Amino acid sequence: MEEEENLVSEEGEGEEEESESDEEESEEENNREGLPFLHRLLLRRDNDNVGGGATGGATVNFDRTLPGKHTYFGTEVEVEGRTILEESQVQTVPLISMPGFILMPQQVFPLTVFHPSVISLLRRVLSTSKTFGVVNLQADSAVWKGLVGTTAEIFEYGEEDPTDHTSIGFKVKARGRQRFKLMSTRREVDGNLTGTVVMLPEIKLENPMYAARLKSCDRFVSWNLEPITPPGSAGSSETEYHVTINHPRQTLDALAPFPAWVYRMYDNQRLVCRLHEELRNCGILNEDVTVPRDPEQLSWWIATNIPIQNHQKEFLLGIDSSVQRLRAELSLLSLCRGRVLACKECSTELAHQSDIFSMSREGPSGAFINPGGHLHETLTLYKAKNLKLVGTPCLEYSWFPGYAWTIIECVSCFCHIGWKFTAGSKALKPEQFYGFSRKSIEAKIEAPEDGGAGQNSEDNIIVM
Ligand SMILES: [Zn+2]
Predict the structure, then answer these.
(1) How far is ligand 1, taken at its centre, from the CA of residue 443, in Å?
(2) If you measure from the C-alpha of residue 352 to the centroid of ligand 1, how many angstroms do you get, rounded to a whole number?
(3) Å from CA of 457 to ligand 1 middle
(4) How many whole angstroms from 350 Cα to the centroid of ligand 1?
(5) 18 Cα to the center of ligand 1, angstroms
(6) What is the pLDDT of residues 332-348, one digit of tens each?
(7) In this predicted structure, what is the pLDDT of residue 300?
(8) Among 34, 297, 326, 405, which residue's Cβ finds the most Cβ atoms within 10 Å?
(9) pTM of the model
(10) Better-predicted residue by pLDDT, 62 or 82
(11) Is the peptide bond before 430 cis (omega within 30 degrees of 0)?
């Protein structure tokens, strides 16, 4: 600790104040030495609302490409080649059920398996199509049929290293690819699941204004549907097309049965612009994160990264067209605005939606795996409240290299919420941040006085 403080002796006044408070804290810690261990843990209530702050002095900024590489996971062997399953066809795919996890296309996730039969399944997959299906199967078999899942394509794997005690299990990194509808499942002799599935197509709609035009008016108009999107103009909701009107008295509105604004509502490029604007308003879109501009990729990026519930994710996964998906997400995002994140168990407010930020280039939410093989979708936040720290900070197996993690619990119900990450060196910025396990939290309306527009209405408001 002393060595670290020497490193930053040239820091500003604010930093000095903070190191003083650190000292006070450590004195307080010493005073607690006489207390039993459990008591000391419980006393460490975390009311620290100081944001990690992306604003820092001349220090080392965290390399935001690191979390997506899952370096804690160990050395991996890269897998090449790709299998694309034909859309709308019935296929047989090996299935892995991951309860509580809805895999989205393009989402990267790590997986550690310990059971010999699942390891043999993954080895078989690696030697053939490199693809398996991920489904969120409930115990009730009645809901299996019709469930929408996503194929996962393995791109790296790692064997257990007998010389390293931290390297246990068979490790795989995979990426979500194609959606499928589950028709039936059967259990193989080795206990693994195989599913008969129908691959779902991604329906691509053409520009609605073009599709609905009166063809007889084509002589007045030259269509070229490449959108004109000046670089860096994501804030504009007005995307223009190279549409040249050859007749001076004609307008685009006159060329279709409905007014032009009706078609604009279903225009992919306009939806992309509106969503980028909405993400910027939420504070999620900034220079630290790469948000796709392609309509389909953006729709999956949003479904992966915004704090929505699993049934809403399932709903988005079931939509076949990016236009409908983007419209539903626009509706969900506008509902998210101004919300608070609360403990799922006891509804204690833990953070504000505007506290969400991206520690990773991929976005504010990432799927990480702990040494026990449990997958946690983790949402990163600058600050949080009403939390209690459990245990001491640990640098080992950190999802954010250079940051030590400490378990955090809800101060009211003691449910596990996630982790507080603190920089191992004071030169590293941000100094601290929080990672909430998404299954432990839910988004709620901040002011409950407008009871009529309560939470139950949220599903009804989704506009498609
Ligand atoms: Zn709670």
Answers:
(1) 13
(2) 15
(3) 23
(4) 9
(5) 29
(6) 888 777 788 999 999 99
(7) 95
(8) 326
(9) 0.76
(10) 62
(11) yes
Phi, psi angles (nearest 5°) of residue 430: -65, 155
| pLDDT exceeds cutoff 70 at 457 | no
Q: Which two tokens stand for residue 375?
A: 């997958």
Three-class SS of residue 432?
Answer: strand
CA of 367 to the centre of ligand 1 (A): 22
CA–CA separation, 206 and 18 (whole Å):
57
pLDDT reported for residue 390: 93
409 CA → ligand 1 middle, Å: 8
Q: For the segment 232-254, what is each residue's pLDDT rounded down to a tens digit? A: 444 444 445 555 555 554 555 56
For residue 365, give every residue at least 6 positions away whose Cβ sits within 8 Å of its Cβ, in sequence order, or none. Answer: 304, 305, 306, 307, 377, 378, 379, 380, 438
Six-digit token pair at 389? 């720290």
Q: How far is the CA of 391 from the centre of ligand 1 (A)?
A: 18
pLDDT at 459: 44
Sign (positive or negative) of CA dihedral 138, 141, 142, 148: positive
> Do residues 360 and 84 make contact, with C-beta atoms less than 8 angstroms apart?
no
99-108, 134-143, 402-411, 427-436: least confidently modelled range: 134-143
Residue that has been written with the tokens 């296929």 in this structure? 91
Q: Tell how far the Cα of 221 is from the centroid of ligand 1, in angstroms.
A: 61
CA of 206 to the centre of ligand 1 (A): 47
Long-range residue pairs from 44-47, CB within 8 A, at least 24 positions apart, any chain? 44/388, 44/389, 44/390, 45/387, 45/388, 45/389, 45/411, 46/384, 46/387, 46/388, 46/389, 46/408, 46/420, 47/385
Cα(385) to centroid of ligand 1, in Å? 12
Nearest CA to 433 out of 27, 54, 19 is that of 54
Residue 186 has pLDDT above 60, yes or no: yes
Query: How many angstroms does the Cα of residue 414 sit away from the middle of ligand 1?
Result: 6
DSSP-derived 3-state class of residue 431: coil
390 Cα: distance to centroid of ligand 1 (angstroms):
15
Which carries the bigger pLDDT value, residue 190 or residue 298? 298
As a whole number of angstroms, the distance between CA 58 and CA 79 comes to: 40
How many whole angstroms from 388 Cα to the centroid of ligand 1?
Answer: 11
| pLDDT confidence of residue 299 | 94
pLDDT digits (tens, 9 = 90+) for 348-407: 999 988 888 888 888 899 999 888 888 999 999 989 999 999 999 998 888 998 899 999
Q: Separation of 343 CA from ligand 1 center, angstroms?
A: 5
Cα 227 to Cα 251, 267, 277: the distances in Å are 18, 11, 17
